[in-house]
Amino acid sequence: MRAVVISRHGGPDVLELRELPRPAAPGPGQVRVSVRAAGLNHLDLWVRRGHPGLHVDLPFIPGSDLAGVVESVGEGVTRVRAGQSVVAYPALFCHQCAACLAGRQNHCRSYAILGENTSGGLCDEIVLPERNLFPLPEGLSFVQGAAFPLAWLTSWHMLTRKVVLQPGDWVLIQAAASGTGVAALQIARLFGARVIATAGSDEKCRRLLELGAEHVVDHRSGELRARVKAVTDGRGCTVVLDHLGAETFSLSLGCLAREGRYLTCGGTTGPELHFDVRHLFIKHQRIIGSTMGDVGDFQTLLAHMGPPPAAGAALRGLWPVVHQEFSLSQVSQAHAELESRQVIGKVVVKLEL
Ligand SMILES: [Zn+2]
Question: I need a labelling partner for 257 at 20 to 30 A (CA). Which of 100, 140, 177, 238 fits?
Answer without folding.
Answer: 177
